[in-house]
Amino acid sequence: MNTANTSFMILSSILVLFMTPGLAFFYGGLVSKRNVVNTMLSVFIMTGVAIVLWVMVGYSLSFEGNIGGVIGTLSNFFMNGVKLGALTATKIPTGIFSIFEMMFAIITPALFVGAVVGRIKFNFLLVFLILWSILIYYPMVHLVWSPNGLLAGLGTLDFAGGTVVHINAGITAFVLSAFLGKRIHYGDIPHTHYNLPWVLLGATILWIGWYGFNAGSALGVDNIAAQATITTTMSTGTAMVTWMVLDMVISGKPTLVGVCTGTLCGLVGITPACGFVTIAGSFWIGMFSTFASYFFVNYLKDRIGVDDALDAFGCHGVSGIVGSIFTGLFATKAVNPIVAHNGLFYGGGFHQLGVQIIATLATIIFVSIAAAIIIKVMSLVMPMRVDRKEEELGLDQGEHGEEADYTVQMSDDLNEYRSDLNLYSKEFRGQMAQLQHPKAPHE
Description:
Blueprint: H1 3-28, H2 36-44, H3 46-63, H4 94-111, H5 122-145, H6 150-154, H7 162-180, H8 196-214, H9 223-250, H10 256-270, H11 279-304, H12 312-330, H13 351-379, H14 388-393, H15 395-400, H16 406-412, H17 420-423, H18 425-436
Helix pairs in contact: 1-2, 1-4, 1-8, 3-4, 3-5, 4-7, 5-7, 5-13, 7-12, 7-13, 8-9, 8-10, 9-10, 9-11, 10-11, 10-12, 11-12, 12-13
């Protein structure tokens, strides 16, 4: 065992796990107080569900055996027969490698929850998460990250999850939204409902956790992990500033929600490329990922008419597609010798760009069809959407019988919220009068 690499991978696993509650805060801060509990629970429950699924069948279907280059086998059900102490190429135990990959299986389905908040039945979502993991996520892991996978054999470069995580989750979000239909109050802009401190907290936790996500995908402490850390930072900073500038130029005002959304786009865009590109490459990927997501969210989304409530497709899907394709432009052997063909801008011609486009299109087509089939079959046996009365009431009460805490109440009803100073103004009048009308020195 390489103790440095193993310690690094344990830390990286913890950081990726940390992203899921961070995502719960990010999404929870963007919904009205009627749906905060439902949104956060729908995200956080994946930590339990995905852990159990991964140990039972996920690891085996992803990395053990091979059926047509598409999926593994169930030969290691409940990880029976897996030598957890056996060392991988980077001298970390197989058990720790499995734990690291498990964390990706947790965060990925949690991402598309943001598309369907406020109107999907929790029971339907829970069953869908299970079937989606088995029929879509594990095959995607095998296709791209298993040495036997078809897309891996094609030469696809996906360092930390452009196709496997972000395009996958983004397309699923789009398909779910299309089947589910628009919210009753679609088009309302609930700025008064935002809990902006939660949005910032969630975005910050995601950024911190993303270093485990991206740098950890080097599977050890080396120059590639260091490069992934640098490119992740550069892309994210660039994206944050890009979204803010676009807001200032187009709408006239920078917004905290916009800055946090831009931050997320930069993190998503660099994910497939972070261990393959230079700092300059990460700058352009961060910028163009944000351009694409900004114009989709603000201009194309309404024209398409699919109600992706928190822009899971607009951020993860669109920025993931840009990042995956741009990897074919900026990948270079100078950064990572595993790159067989340099990107177009580094003298490698169109080969790697073509591979990236094929892998991206294959992911979009496979996930779209598979998700649609799962939804159609499930809809035959259980309702997908809550009724109008429950949607008006809010899913916190309708589905769970709980309410979010007072901090949401304060931010949601700011005009109605009364502080002690307001409630007991007479007691403070003397002191306040002194502050507002100080006595002149001669008095």
